[in-house]
Each structure stands twice: as structure tokens, then as C-alpha cells.
Specification:
By secondary structure, the chain is of the alpha/beta class. Helix content is 33%, strand content 31%. The protein contains four helices and six strands, in the order βαββαββαβα. Strands 1-3-2-4-5-6 form a six-stranded mixed β-sheet. The radius of gyration is 15 Å and the shape is globular. The chain starts with 8 loop residues before the first strand and ends with a helix.
Length: 137
């Protein structure tokens, strides 16, 4: 189903991989990109990958969507996890690319049932591990 505003399609594999991350926890993160008017899976992070592995996988000058499964321990010493949706839109990316990603974000995010926290990020400092921890609790 195309997004009326941007004409964007979402590849079924995006939803299937997200369900694998959410239910089976076989991925730590998924990076998505828009290619030929369709959102596709670009990279899958293994369960043992770190947050740093994830952030290093994002291109410095191109937009991406990503989900990250963040594990943490609450103040009550309870193990939990939260699924973050990150809209990566670096300052150095092309204006047209930023517009396409911005106009397609909400439609794409609706396809991924189970997102708990959303971040709009233009610089790596806006998604430091401290920020992730703060938003998780």
C-alpha cells in the first residue's frame, strides 16, 4: 500500500524482520533505507552487537530509519527492554533526501507495531547512550 503523500511502499520483509526483532529477539537492530520509492532492510544487527556497533552502521551523510532493541535494568533491578525508532537525518544529507524521509516516516512507523520510543536525530550526540538510557526509563 503506497503512502498517498510520498508514494512510498514498505517491503514486507521490513515488517517480518521487525517482528523477528520484537518477538524472537534475533536482531539487536535493523537499519532501513528508501530505495526506488520503497522502504527496504539495509542491515540487521546480531543480538550480540553493541549500541556502538549500531551507531557506527548509520551513514554519516544519508538519512535512514532504524529500530534498536535496548536492554536495561530498572532502579528496582528488573531486566527490561524498549524498542526505539530512530529517524536518522544528518545535517549533511541532501535536502531532497531529508524531505522524502520526513514525509514517509509516520506511515512507515505505523507499519512497525510495537515501537515504544521515537527519536528524531540529526547528529550522533542527539542519540548518545545516555540519552537512550534516559528515554528508556
Amino acid at each position: 500500500m503506497a503512502n498517498a503523500a510520498s508514494g512510498m511502499q514498505v517491503e514486507d520483509d521490513c515488517k517480518l524482520k521487525f517482528l523477528d526483532l520484537k518477538a524472537k529477539r534475533i536482531y539487536r537492530y535493523i537499519i532501513f533505507k528508501i530505495e526506488d520509492q520503497e522502504v527496504v532492510v539495509e542491515k540487521l544487527g546480531s543480538p550480540n552487537d553493541s549500541y556502538e556497533d549500531f551507531t557506527n552502521s548509520l551513514p554519516a551523510d544519508e538519512c535512514r530509519y532504524a529500530v534498536f532493541d535496548y536492554d536495561f535494568t530498572t532502579n528496582e533491578n528488573v531486566q527490561k527492554s524498549k524498542i526505539f525508532f530512530i529517524a536518522w537525518s544528518p545535517e549533511t544529507s541532501r535536502v531532497r533526501m531529508k524531505m522524502v524521509y520526513a514525509s514517509s516516516k509516520d506511515r512507515f512507523k505505523r507499519e512497525l507495531d510495537g515501537i515504544q520510543v521515537e527519536l528524531q536525530v540529526t547528529d550522533p550526540s542527539e542519540m548518545s547512550l545516555d540519552i537512550i538510557k534516559g528515554r528508556a526509563i
